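CO-FOLDING WORKSHEET

Operator: S.A.
Ligand of interest: fe (ii) ion
Run index: 251
Mode: holo prediction, single chain
Checklist:
[x] sequence pasted
[x] SMILES validated
[ ] output reviewed
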Amino acid sequence: MPDLMTRRELLLTTAFALFTGRVNASNALLDSQSQQLNSYPDAAINWTKCRSQMAALAKANASGLISQQTVAAQGRMYLTQLDIESAEFKHAVDAAYESGNQYWLWQRLIKDSNINGGILSINNDQPVPLHDHPGASGMLRIISGETEVWQFDEINSGNNSREKNGGDQDIVELELAMHRVLKPGDVALLTPEQGNIHALRALTAQCSMLDFFIPPYERSQRSWYKPLTNNWFDKEKVACRKFPQAEFPRA
Ligand SMILES: [Fe+2]
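OUTPUT RECEIVED:
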């Protein structure tokens, strides 16, 4: 006889499976079409409900019940449904712990061992360089402003790609997975396997976005990617020098 939590998780998993069928049918993961607010039939949800559903999703992920693609798809739905105009949500943002660096401001809304979520704000004069979030699925929803986003995958990650570069251990080749302009209400996803390497450039003076990671990535495990050419922005493949977080003290 399953205990209460197990039954809840089974119900959750069933709901995820139903939802995933719909998502897979439309090939929505990394969809080139912007997903607009209210594209789901369900009513808006408040911050308390969004937060608890995200926490349950993270717990299900930590239990190994669902795939990272399902985590990303389900998390996107919660972000899409969240009523960001409510007094409750605005109060949560006002009360958020703030941190940042030269690239972004981070207002932390939820963080534990399974999840990290908050609002990321970037400025037009400071693009966020290519970097990754190893092992994490990420979901973002634009709140205000517009941003250009690039997502890449490392070609032949982990095998002979570096040997082709004359033995240079730091050079990797990236292949473009997605390049989009995101506007308020638009969402974007990454998973550990798809589009995990990304860069952002605000097209308005400032751009703010809800940003959730399940599970939270280890900051010390993050890598940064410096393109070998300055004009990489419209390229399908980009050779980069890859270096670890420890060698990138600016973020
Ligand atoms: Fe990032």
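REVIEW:
Confidence is low (pLDDT under 50) at residues 1-10, 13-39.
The two ends are 49 Å apart (CA to CA).
[x] output reviewed
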